[in-house]
Amino acid sequence: MMYPYITLADGTEILHSHLIQKDDADMVEVHFERAVDDGFDSARCVLPTYEWKFNDGFSAEEISFFEEFLRQNAHLLYRYAGQGGIHCA
Question: Can you give the pTM of this predicted structure?
Fold first, then answer.
């Protein structure tokens, strides 16, 4: 299951998974998606390795921006993944 995290100014939606246990480590998958004329641009990155599982449509510059975004937000993404998403009042 993916949980919404934030929508960027250009309409890119950022979602995250629940905590995933693999080899005695906690991992979070972060998905980026943006609507375009013929469908969606999408990419997915795995924390804490910052390994990109796929990228379909985002430029190298955008991926670089996303990596910096992830480095600045990883602690929050892990917190919310452990809580089952952001819970708003």
Answer: 0.92
Whether the CB-CB separation of 43 and 56 falls below 8 Å is answered with yes
Decide: residue 38, CB within 10 A, 0-12 exposed, 13-18 middle, 19+ buried: exposed
Name the CA dihedral angle for 6, 79, 82, 86, rounded to a multiple of 10 degrees: -40
Q: 28 and 22 in contact (C-beta within 8 Å)?
A: no
- 46-87 tens-digit pLDDT: 999 999 999 999 999 999 999 999 999 999 999 999 888 876
Burial of 21 (C-beta count, 10 Å sphere; 0-12/13-18/19+): exposed
